[in-house]
User: What shape does this take?
Amino acid sequence: MTSGEDAHRIDAAIDESEQLVRNMAGPIRNRPDTPLLEGAWTVRDTLCHVAARANDVPLILRLTNPRTSEEASSMMAELDATNARQIADRSARTVDELVAEALAGYAAAHVAVSELGDAQLEQILQVPGMGPTRLADLLVLTYQGHAQTHLRSIEAALAAERS
Assistant: This one.
């Protein structure tokens, strides 16, 4: 796969996440305290997490650097504490501010992806629980898998509350 094809796949995944945030802004604004169908988070908590992680490119790039990979791996290993911090740090923000943060993060992610070269996109990372993974594939997974899974959980919670 060429770097152009990889970048297109990553950008498409970011675009889809961005569109989901835009589509759900109103419903989240109207019912921010709706609990997710699984776990202890509300839709607002989940939006806090999505906003915090909208530009995950720098975090993932830290995994590729031997000097910072241990720090990034440690943060990933302490996910519950990191997630709780993301929510607490955004507790005073409005839904509109969280949506704006997420959209700005997605815009920054697009710029960061455009600056990646072929060698970076092809780099193989040792990802805990996944094994060897190309950087390009990890970025696609981050936006298609991680971000969109959270956004779809918001959709499901809001849909279930309407029924």
About this structure: The CA atoms of residues 62 and 68 lie 5 Å apart. The chain has one domain: 3-158. The first strand starts at residue 124 and ends at 127. The longest helix spans residues 3-30.
